[in-house]
Design goal:
The complex is a heterodimer of chains A (19) and B (251). By secondary structure, chain A is mostly helical. Chain A contains one helix and no strands. The chains are: A mainly alpha (19), B mainly alpha (251).
């Protein structure tokens, strides 16, 4: 998990489309 | 009518709409934009100057461009219905394993078969442009794939559904909920079949698309081999590659 912190963050960030 | 036990025509249409919308919204360049730039080619002088760059510099450039493109693929995945319902471990496994394949499919939008050039950093570049990478075999394999994918003349809808189906491959190692991934992939393949059927296409086109998968996998493996070799020769440069690139392609 620690090794993929950027992917984690990108997946958790809300998409612009979601407002 | 029901196309299968748990997938109605309405479901298929909903899936198609969702996947196509996600694809269009997350493509780095629109088809209109790429069409407008068709004749924006690197001059022979510009090509020569890129060929004379160091391998380290050229690898860094390509790593940055691939990283940018990967961020769009992550966004594509997030918008596919059902993807965010998977556990985060599986989301990461699918993205790590499939994002380069998705990029390879998307690449045919940015490929011009009339002069064998590929859109890179604002202009269209020939295979020779990438000479400094020291990976002629990888570069040639990528251009060959682009050429053969272009020959299939995929519509944006077919490309979108094909990318989504590949991303949702249930056979990726270490998945914890592969059955759930398989269900999603099956629905997307049904949608792709339906789309091909509606477009007057046939099973033959789907077979031709699927026949590109081994070529795509071998390009992904070759990229990893080249990266590992590069890392041995230039560990510091490899360490300075964008963190997302290192995360996705690290062991």
């Amino acid at each position: 998990t620690e090794r993929h912190k950027i992917l984690h963050r990108l997946l958790q960030d809300s998409s612009p489309a979601d407002g | 009518g029901a196309l299968s036990d748990d997938c109605s025509l309405l479901d298929i249409e909903r899936i198609t709409q969702n996947v196509v919308k996600s694809h269009i919204e997350t493509c780095q360049y629109s088809t209109e934009e790429l069409k407008r730039l068709t004749w924006n080619l690197y001059t022979p002088e510009e090509t020569r100057s890129f060929q004379l760059k160091s391998a380290e510099w050229m690898w860094q450039q390509c790593a940055v461009h691939i990283t940018n493109a990967i961020q769009y693929v992550v966004e594509f995945a997030k918008r596919i219905s059902g993807f965010m319902d998977l556990c985060q471990n599986d989301q990461i496994i699918l993205l790590k394993a499939g994002c380069l394949e998705v990029l390879l499919i998307r690449m045919c939008r940015a490929y011009n078969s009339t002069n064998n050039t590929l859109f890179f950093n604002g202009k269209f570049a020939s295979p020779q442009f990438f000479k400094a990478l020291g990976c002629d075999d990888l570069v040639n394999a990528i251009f060959e794939l682009a050429k053969s994918l272009c020959r299939l003349q995929l519509s944006e809808e077919e490309m979108a559904l094909f990318s989504a189906a590949i991303l949702l491959s249930p056979d990726r190692p270490w998945l914890t909920e592969s059955q759930q991934v398989q269900k999603l992939q099956e629905k997307i393949y049904l949608a792709l079949q339906h789309s091909l059927h509606m477009g007057g296409g046939s099973q033959e086109k789907l077979d031709k698309m699927a026949s590109k998968l081994p070529q795509m996998k071998s390009i992904c493996n070759l990229h990893i081999d080249k990266l590992e070799f590069f890392r041995l020769l230039h560990p510091e440069t490899a360490f300075s590659f964008p963190p997302l690139y290192r995360e996705v392609f690290g062991s």
